[in-house]
Amino acid sequence: xxxxxxxxxxxxxxxxxxxxxxxxxxxxxxxxxxxxxxxxxxxxxxxxxxxxxxxxxxxxxxxxxxxxxxxxxxxxxxxxxxxxxxxxxxxxxxxxxxxxxxxxxxxxxxxxxxxxxxxxxxxxxxxxxxxxxxxxxxxxxxxxxxxxxxxxxxxxxxxxxxxxxxxxxxxxxxxxxxxxxxxxxxxxxxxxxxxxxxxxxxxxxxxxxxxxxxxxxxxxxxxxxxxxxxxxxxxxxxxxxxxxxxxxxxxxxxxxxxxxxxxxxxxxxxxxxxxxxxxxxxxxxxxxxxxxxxxxxxxxxxxxxxxxxxxxxxxxxxxxx
Amino acid sequence: xxxxxxxxxxxxxxxxxxxxxxxxxxxxxxxxxxxxxxxxxxxxxxxxxxxxxxxxxxxxxxxxxxxxxxxxxxxxxxxxxxxxxxxxxxxxxxxxxxxxxxxxxxxxxxxxxxxxxxxxxxxxxxxxxxxxxxxxxxxxxxxxxxxxxxxxxxxxxxxxxxxxxxxxxxxxxxxxxxxxxxxxxxxxxxxxxxxxxxxxxxxxxxxxxxxxxxxxxxxxxxxxxxxxxxxxxxxxxxxxxxxxxxxxxx
Lengths: 321, 250
Hints:
The complex is a heterodimer. By secondary structure, chain A is mostly helical. Chain A has one domain (2-319): ABC transporter involved in vitamin B12 uptake, BtuC (Orthogonal Bundle). Chain A is built from 16 helices and 2 strands. A two-stranded antiparallel ribbon of chain A has the order 1-2. In chain A, helix 2 (28-54) packs across helix 12 and helix 12 packs across helix 13 (259-278). The two termini of chain A are 15 Å apart. By secondary structure, chain B is α/β, with parallel strands linked by helices. Chain B folds into 2 domains: 1-80 and 161-219, Rossmann fold (3-Layer(aba) Sandwich), CATH 3.40.50; 86-157, no CATH class. Chain B has a 6-stranded mixed sheet, sandwiched between helices. The mean pLDDT of chain B is 90. The interface between A and B is medium-sized, with 20 and 28 residues.
């Protein structure tokens, strides 16, 4: 049972901390910091389902986030739907798209799959840049009325923040539940040796398509919320290739395959990035650091921080999930 | 006894190479069938056709009354046909218990995690890896990995077990324990189709033997008949009358 997992309660504690800390003294700048960390954790955790659990490297994971943002913003602005409903619908629509893409490209393995994910990102970006209802390359702006239904801009931003924190907690819980399930065991078997997994009875084609689709859902919901909060979207910020790569750096840094690893990597990397971006000397230098970091991790600690902890204390494997 | 497995006129080509050509045989329930033949005879390819890794170009495979010729390997396992690999395929970064749990979870009984764990630890005991359940599969020796292959296949609770050279690469002591294990499996009522090069083992374990050479079935019958069949001797040693010659000079 999930309730008996200590880590489940830790996730709830983290979420509670995220909720309480900025509310205390109405600290908006802390809220903005935490929202970036929450998004990083959401992206890294869901990417972990593909890379860490199933062993398929997805270079275009950000496509789900951007597409979710577009569907969400379209529904809230043009259709004037309620935010929560729009975000959920965005998640479902993007998941269904991902399932279709997945059935097509998950026949590929290794580097070919990775290339196909870049292809999907480029194709979707090209499509959206030419899609009239979504404003082509200029994108869409949120009508201010959308904030009114949530009780004004100030309240709307707080509500969005809490929803994003909830999505963050949910991302980690989904990772935890899958990790301890039969479905998760099937994914691990695919990661270790797909041919062996199939011979042992795992329906790899279906499992891969399902996990690809699941890994799309919460990032899409988060995209819908985040772009609602930002008030605008255009193809270059929605499908930012760099963010896709940074997601991989976060995951590798924290430790692929581990729930806490993905969250830790997301947090640390986001902290580092915002420090570098705002420091006058090192501004625009963060990608160099990210590349260097990725190299160091891959060369010296391929399991990331958590993998390193496992190696120091083998019994930690059972405790840290 | 009814036939558990019926292979009828199976052929498999890879480009111009005919790996298996028009091979037919049957396995009765509870029977142990040995499959032998020189290297490259098509034994493993035949296994791959039977459990669905390859699709047969011609012919059909029927298991427990169902035509499984076009089934994928994962569906074949659910029906109760499990196999091991000649080149072992451990799930390296998982514990032995997890490895075997995969077999139990997705096998014939499609067990839940809790039930599968229980079956897995029983099977690990049975193959003599019980005390190493929490070790990672990568840390096993080759003999251990072969036993793990057998354990995973057994955890699926198969009616028919395909063993692909489980004795190859083992030292004599390990061979003896493995033969003992295979015999126990057979005694528990599981039918076995085994590929083996070690004649002493195949002679003592098999009820019947099928010999493949260059993709064709060369001979079939009781172990004693088969090893004295002149075609078989020629396929292995090159001269049909070499046995006679050797015995004469001695």
